[in-house]
Amino acid sequence: MQWFHRTIELLTKHFDNVRLRTPITEDEIIGLQFQRSTAAEELKYFYTQTNGLAVGLHDSVVGLIFEFEESQKLLSLISHRDGAYQLLPVRGDGCGDYDCLVIGGGIAEGAVVFYDHEVNEAPSHLLAGSFASYFQLWADYLTTKYQANGEIDQRYVAPKLEAWPWLGEPQRRHPWPFDEAWLKVNDEKAAILLEDAATRSWLNRQNDLT
């Protein structure tokens, strides 16, 4: 599972504060709800290496991947009513919205999608084709947007210069997750899903991003 160790190295080299937690064992995972899904193997590996992860950012919510127990609690809150699929939250925005792994069968199983609590009949848009890809894209986004001390890099934020609007463009950008063309190039599984008509119709706002 090189993706995990490579991403942890990226985060720990860039940020002053990255907190890994005591991992849980496979025995502790067996029998719990998301164990039934073969799509969860990458996430299961993550939890057997660290039970959640916290990157020390000024906005602490952005840098937090849930502990296993928290994911399980949230699972029952947002699982789809007809049982065709389930969404396992792995990260939240503090406003009731979650990045979720699709488990339990159905469309886009194994992908990570954004669940918007205001559009709860279906996920809003695709974040990654797998948890491994999501973890790497998320880390790359953080190391682009934030400085080592957890503050937003001011080159990322467009300065407010109304008199000279052409100077208001940020020097640093990151295309994830809303640049679909970029996502297709950088995530092979996501590219396949984004060409699938059933997946696109299931994702509530995906077509608004193109």
TrEMBL record:
It comes from the Bacteria. InterPro entries: Knr4/Smi1-like_sf (IPR037883). This is SMI1 / KNR4 family protein. It comes from Symmachiella macrocystis.
